[in-house]
Amino acid sequence: MSPAVKNNTAEPNLDVSFQDYLVLSKLVFDWADSYDAKDWDRLRSIIAPTLTVDYTKIGLKRWDNMAADEYMAMVTHPGFLGDKTIKTQHLLGQTWWEKISDTEVIGHHQLRAAHQVYETVDLETVKLRGHSHATNEHYYRKVNGVWKFAGLKPNVRWNELQFEEVFKGLD
């Protein structure tokens, strides 16, 4: 997805209908809250059949057509958000919406992702904390007339505390 071009300028098209704005706002809330609640059924219900996942700015790779099942496997992996000893809160700041077409929108979101890792799954003793401050591009696509989350591209501004020790990895 790329910015719409008007009169040979790269000014974004902000012409998102109010109804789409409301639906997209709920969609980004559901994305964040499903991560934090580890509500994988809700997450699955809002994602597109294929997603663009661009983790190049955080040292990983870009997947242009990641299948929904692959995305779910990655997110729910025990080395990532599927770790039952990790609690998160993905707190959204300001957002603006860029209309690419009638079926594609990019959401530009400010994000603070707080992470707390516990010693065990009983969640009684905190082992470490690590937080990330970022902006995210989120991709949204209409599938059969319904807006779906279709991927993301985080741009980390900075991490704090022991963020690099939060996740075990996707091996």
UniProtKB/TrEMBL annotation:
<feature type="active site">
    <location>
        <position position="90"/>
    </location>
</feature>
<feature type="binding site">
    <location>
        <position position="35"/>
    </location>
    <ligand>
        <name>substrate</name>
    </ligand>
</feature>
<protein>
    <recommendedName>
        <fullName>Scytalone dehydratase-like domain-containing protein</fullName>
    </recommendedName>
</protein>
<feature type="domain" description="Scytalone dehydratase-like">
    <location>
        <begin position="16"/>
        <end position="168"/>
    </location>
</feature>
<feature type="binding site">
    <location>
        <position position="136"/>
    </location>
    <ligand>
        <name>substrate</name>
    </ligand>
</feature>
<dbReference type="InterPro" id="IPR049884">
    <property type="entry name" value="Scytalone_dh"/>
</dbReference>
<keyword id="KW-0456">Lyase</keyword>
<feature type="active site">
    <location>
        <position position="115"/>
    </location>
</feature>
<dbReference type="InterPro" id="IPR004235">
    <property type="entry name" value="Scytalone_dehydratase"/>
</dbReference>
<dbReference type="Pfam" id="PF02982">
    <property type="entry name" value="Scytalone_dh"/>
</dbReference>
<feature type="binding site">
    <location>
        <position position="55"/>
    </location>
    <ligand>
        <name>substrate</name>
    </ligand>
</feature>
<dbReference type="InterPro" id="IPR032710">
    <property type="entry name" value="NTF2-like_dom_sf"/>
</dbReference>
<dbReference type="GO" id="GO:0030411">
    <property type="term" value="F:scytalone dehydratase activity"/>
</dbReference>
<comment type="similarity">
    <text>Belongs to the scytalone dehydratase family.</text>
</comment>
<dbReference type="GO" id="GO:0006582">
    <property type="term" value="P:melanin metabolic process"/>
</dbReference>
